[in-house]
Design a protein that fits this description.
By secondary structure, this protein is mainly β. Helices cover 0% and strands 52% of the residues. The protein is built from no helices and twelve strands.
Length: 109
């Protein structure tokens, strides 16, 4: 029987009044082995895990997709390191770069 992969989405946005990056209603992203985590935004962005990463890599840059969005799609390995994995995000929007070093952490149960 084929295993179903669970998709976790993180929507990255901008509160232009406050000049801060937003993440929808997400406070954390709980995930397990083999889950796919997709970050999506209206503008180009990059993310970097600060101390530990649940992936083999720790830094990702978005790529544009046909619907005009920018995405990073990654699948967790079979045995990702458990715990809380904090990351920073930089978003390019409207000719400016916005940085947030306190993004919703990825928590591997």
């Amino acid at each position: 029987m084929e295993e179903t992969i669970t998709l976790k989405k993180v929507s990255i946005g901008l509160d232009s009044n406050a000049g801060t990056i937003t993440y929808g209603n997400e406070k954390y992203c709980h995930a397990k082995a083999k889950n796919e985590i997709d970050w999506e935004s209206d503008g180009p962005f990059g993310i970097q895990f600060l101390t530990t990463s649940p992936f083999a890599e720790s830094c990702f840059q978005s790529t544009p997709v046909p619907n005009g969005k920018h995405v990073v799609k990654r699948q967790l390995p079979d045995n990702p390191p458990t715990g809380t994995h904090s990351y920073a995000c930089a978003l390019y929007f409207g000719g400016k770069v916005y940085v947030d070093a306190n993004c919703p952490a990825i928590i591997i149960d």
